[in-house]
Amino acid sequence: MSKERVVIVGASHGGHQAILELLSRYDDLEITLYEAGDFVSFMSCGMELYLEDRVTDVQDVRNFRPTDFPQANVHILNGHTVTQINADDQTVQVTNNATNETFTQPYDKLILSSGVTPRSLPVPGADLTNVFLMRGYDWATKIKAKLEDPAVKHVTVIGAGYIGIEAAEASRRAGKAVTLLDVIDRPLGTYLDAEMTTLLAQKLTEQGVNVQMNAHITAYTGDTHVRAVKTTTDSYPSDLVIQAAGVQPATDWLRGTVDLDQRGWIKTDEYLRTNLSNVFAVGDATLAYSIPAGKQVPIALATVARREARYVVQHLFETQPAVPFKGVVGSSALSVFDEHFAQSGLNTFTAKRAGVSVAKSFFQTALRPQYVPVSQGNPQVYVQLFYHPLSHQILGGAVLSTYDVTAQGNVLALAIQQKLRLEDLADADFFFQPGFDRQWSLLNLAAQHALGEVPFQN
């Protein structure tokens, strides 16, 4: 009997996890992974660490090397682009990018983890030299070279989301004059509510970043090299432009074959199956089921891709999976110079986009008892909670401080995943030690505050 053939498209988080799960759970498979890029598999979320010389080597900023899987039944081919699915005979068409040779690969099960591509603004001058994107190995090494070039003095970053903030901070730490532009009204405005983004915008300004929001970019100007970024109201000198203006699903090759929504995200059912038999989809290019939103939404996170891949492989050979994919919360964290935050689930922006009603509470306090002075490590901490206005089910939250309280974001994620209420979090049993926290822990106090209780003072 021949081995079952599993083909994986894409070598990022979902593809990597799929191989790990397949090897852990099954003995008799032929596993083939195709990756269009030459480098397997760069972790763009580690790019800021690389740009700031905080990694061992750029070659190490990856999920895995092909040599990490020496098994005879695992075949990892980088520089190979899958261009077509032939569902009737269960094959994919593959092009070797180096030789331009095209061949057909049969599959019994196909896992799509095709990911996303960075978005370049469709404005005049986007093809000028030194207009870069902030994603992938090739762009990372190009940006690194420019940040080390003393001739590059002015860096303009387009986009004030996570990637744009990382680019701005890395550029400032490299000694560049940095301007941060975005069409939205505040940095990180799609991730956090205004109470926290106000604090972070102040931090960026204090660190020398020229923050310009509500900026509508009309052109990149220059001769062959970019010299400035023009908006409807101003012009900003630029020796380097780093575009971090969002991503789009890398799914054009699937149109007319796999069901996509109007924006190109792959549609799947509750078992992560596409409309094609034996074809599954995971990762950034899919619509993920959000537990707090109660619906499928785009959530481009490594943690989501890995959980989806784990689920798919667990149920890969079941005619009808025993249970549906239980969904994800969507959690992330970021440092903005010496401020650290973590967020999970919904906020006002994402709740409105998902059509979910939320109430919210913002809480500020000291991390430790009042008798511990600020100079001894007792900074201010901030907590935002989002919850259902009637049931008090916790739907989202965020924590922020100069002290690293990001682990509290994992507590919030668990509370959201388990559909806890404010009352549950207000009573939750956490440890106390005054060198770390207070008798009622930070999230206890935040939930009690949201419930309108008399505040605990020490």
Automatic annotation (TrEMBL):
Cofactor field: FAD
Keyword Oxidoreductase: yes
Domain FAD/NAD(P)-binding: 5-309
Cited PANTHER family: NAD(P)H SULFUR OXIDOREDUCTASE (COA-DEPENDENT) (PTHR43429:SF1), PYRIDINE NUCLEOTIDE-DISULFIDE OXIDOREDUCTASE DOMAIN-CONTAINING (PTHR43429)
Protein name (record): NAD(FAD)-dependent dehydrogenase
Domain of life of the native organism: Bacteria
Upper classification of the organism: Bacteria, Bacillati, Bacillota, Bacilli, Lactobacillales
One Pfam assignment: Pyr_redox_2
Organism for this UniProt entry: Levilactobacillus spicheri
